[in-house]
Design brief:
Elements lengths: L9 E6 L20 E3 L10 E4 L2 E4 L10 H4 L4 H11 L3 E5 L11 H21 L4 E5 L9 H10 L2 E7 L1 E2 L2 E2 L6 H9 L4 E4 L5 H7 L8 H17 L2 H4 L5 E4 L6 H16 L11 H4 L2 E5 L5 H8 L4 E3 L14 H8 L4 H16 L2
Parallel strand pairs: 1-5, 5-6, 6-7, 7-10, 10-11, 11-12, 12-13
Antiparallel strand pairs: 2-3, 3-4, 8-9
Helix pairs in contact: 7-9
Length: 354
């Protein structure tokens, strides 16, 4: 089947691996925040690191061996596009790698780093023939700069706003974030909650002191944010704002929705009817990225057929990574071609406003 014959295929969660080029846009008064590359110490890990905001941060972590360095780091955009052709992917939505954890402590450093990252992705988008869209880093520690930054991102190919389930010491239902949600809604940019956490204390605790990419550190915050946003009725405050929950699979959706149904019924003094509605995600404009090893047909029964997307985690090598995930869903067809095509294309197009 040729590209013109098959339905649109969108990788809703692909990655880019940050390089020194990522930080080349830091200049002027913010130049002191530009990360410095540190070579490995003899006898220790051979991996390079950066000094960022006074702390040592490893680079080139979570690397997938099934992608070339030039492609995953986007030194060669044409190589990435060529690989996408091989995979049968029309569009990739790019997420960061280093930002699955908090990388800066000061608002000035956070702004300088995020601003540079956004301009690097804008540069990639300009070379990407419209096929490499991306999720922007907002200045979450200084929201007075959010409007200008997100407007730039929108004008340069961004199709979402990056957040983690725990942002510092705040849940995503915190009114602190409401001004940014309002800006994002006005720009038609969804809030994209990706696996990871921005609370080092919580990450160290949940990761048993290692801040590792464990289930508790990376996945649990995504599920928690879904529950918290709905429990506090945040989507109702922003009637056209969309939300994505990415790289935590989707198997948890029925359980969390079931819990919320019971809580809402109890709060309203109503009796449960014994049936969990499959309208909760649609009514609140929420989308969840599934994986091919999810029981997709079961999840669809609760999430609805219009609110699941799928990604490959391109460039990474972890429990969510599956380079051929989009083809696998289409070929194994667990939900029928009509719903599969929605998950592979139409739903992601709606989520990201493509």
């Amino acid at each position: 089947m040729t590209t013109s014959e098959r339905p649109l295929t969108i990788d809703a969660d692909a990655h880019v691996i940050e390089t020194d080029r990522t930080w080349e846009f830091i200049e002027g008064e913010y130049a002191r925040y530009k990360p410095v590359t540190v070579a490995p110490v003899e006898g220790e890990s051979k991996r390079l690191s950066w000094i960022i905001d006074g702390k040592l941060k490893p680079r080139r972590v979570n690397i997938g061996s099934d992608t070339s360095e030039a492609s995953r780091e986007l030194h060669d955009v044409k190589a990435r596009l060529s690989h996408m052709d091989e995979l049968g992917t029309d569009i990739q939505v790019l997420y960061p790698t280093i930002y699955t954890r908090k990388i800066a402590d000061s608002p000035a450093a956070d702004y300088a780093l995020g601003r540079s990252y956004n301009r690097w992705l804008a540069e990639i988008w300009e070379q990407g023939e419209g096929r490499l869209r991306w999720v922007a880093m907002p200045p979450l520690m200084d929201l007075s700069k959010a409007k200008e930054e997100l407007e730039f991102a929108k004008e340069h190919g961004a199709c979402g706003v990056f957040m983690r389930g725990f942002e510092g010491d705040r849940h995503l239902s915190d009114p602190y974030f409401f001004p940014m949600y309002d800006i994002a809604m006005g720009l038609d940019l969804p809030i994209c909650i990706h696996a990871g956490t921005s609370n080092p204390t919580v990450a160290n605790f949940l990761g048993f002191g290692t801040d590792s990419g464990s289930f508790l550190v990376s996945k649990l915050p995504v599920m928690s944010s879904f529950h918290t946003l709905l429990l506090h009725k945040v989507p109702q405050r922003f009637p056209t704002l969309r939300f994505a929950f990415v790289e935590a699979s989707a198997q948890w959706v029925p359980y969390v929705v079931h819990d919320l149904v019971r809580r809402f019924a109890q709060a309203d003094g109503k009796h449960l009817e014994g049936v969990v509605s499959n309208e909760m995600l649609a009514k609140n404009r929420m989308y969840v990225a599934c994986q091919t090893d999810d029981d997709v047909s079961y999840v669809v029964g609760v999430a609805g057929e219009d609110n699941l997307v799928i990604g490959s985690d391109y460039g990474h090598a972890d429990t969510a990574s599956e380079l051929a995930a989009l083809n696998t869903l289409r070929e194994h067809d667990p939900v029928g071609p009509r719903i599969a095509n929605k998950i592979l294309g139409a739903n992601a197009k709606a989520l990201y406003g493509l």
